[in-house]
């Protein structure tokens, strides 16, 4: 079973259009702006993905071509199994939210490692970066609108922009609370909280089991 990924789905999608070599796939993904949602920056990752799809019989080698001074390029084509698998992956990713582990929420879970002032400074820097990213997205959207690109091919950009706006508003609110002192912490307070929520292993297990026992008693 081939492990699916956004890049694997992109390869199958590209080859559904026509046979092509990896460099052409990478260029098309970038030209269409799909590199905003698909990590295709490292060509080695693309070749590894192609190799997995090839071993899984989802794609096949069509031919090897040489174009002037360029080195030989292997042209790939999709198989019937690849077409079916691509549709299956797409349906799954559209219908089922994936449990993802982005870096920013993970970083937020360890804020006590820094002081409130330090966190505030870092988040203010993030606000600036998010604002610039939003400007860049809007410029791309305006360009696509002028080119009359159909909305069907811009939907992923709409979602990315919506998430940017939500994150930007939320980070701004956190910075406001940090500056007002309504969100703050100290080492003494952290030590107190740690003591309050640290229980012996046996007692912790018992407390977790209590609600289950009560529910069973009622049935």
TrEMBL record:
PANTHER family: PADR-FAMILY TRANSCRIPTIONAL REGULATOR, TRANSCRIPTIONAL REGULATOR PADR FAMILY PROTEIN. This is Transcription regulator PadR N-terminal domain-containing protein. InterPro entries: Metal_resp_DNA-bind_regulator, Tscrpt_reg_PadR_N, WH-like_DNA-bd_sf, WH_DNA-bd_sf. Residues 11-84 form the Transcription regulator PadR N-terminal domain. Pfam families: PadR. It comes from Paraburkholderia haematera.
């Amino acid at each position: 079973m081939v492990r699916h990924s956004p890049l694997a789905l992109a390869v199958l999608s590209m080859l559904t259009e026509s046979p092509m070599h990896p460099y052409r796939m990478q260029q098309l993904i970038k030209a269409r702006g799909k590199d905003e949602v698909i990590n295709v920056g490292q060509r080695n990752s693309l070749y590894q993905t192609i190799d997995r799809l090839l071993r899984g019989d989802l794609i096949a080698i069509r031919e090897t071509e040489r174009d002037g001074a360029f080195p030989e390029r292997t042209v790939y084509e999709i198989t019937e199994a690849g077409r079916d698998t691509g549709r299956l992956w797409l349906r799954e990713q559209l219908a089922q939210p994936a449990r993802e582990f982005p870096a920013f929420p993970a970083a937020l879970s360890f804020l006590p490692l820094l002081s409130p002032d330090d966190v505030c400074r870092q988040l203010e820097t993030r606000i600036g970066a998010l604002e610039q990213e939003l400007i860049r997205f809007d410029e791309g959207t305006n360009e696509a609108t002028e080119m009359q690109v159909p909305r069907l091919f811009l939907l992923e950009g709409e979602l990315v922009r919506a998430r940017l706006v939500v994150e930007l508003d939320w980070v701004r609110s956190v910075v406001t609370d940090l500056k007002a002192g309504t969100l703050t912490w100290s080492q003494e307070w952290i030590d107190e909280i740690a003591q309050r929520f640290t229980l012996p292993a046996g007692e912790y297990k018992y407390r977790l089991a209590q609600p289950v026992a009560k529910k069973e008693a009622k049935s």
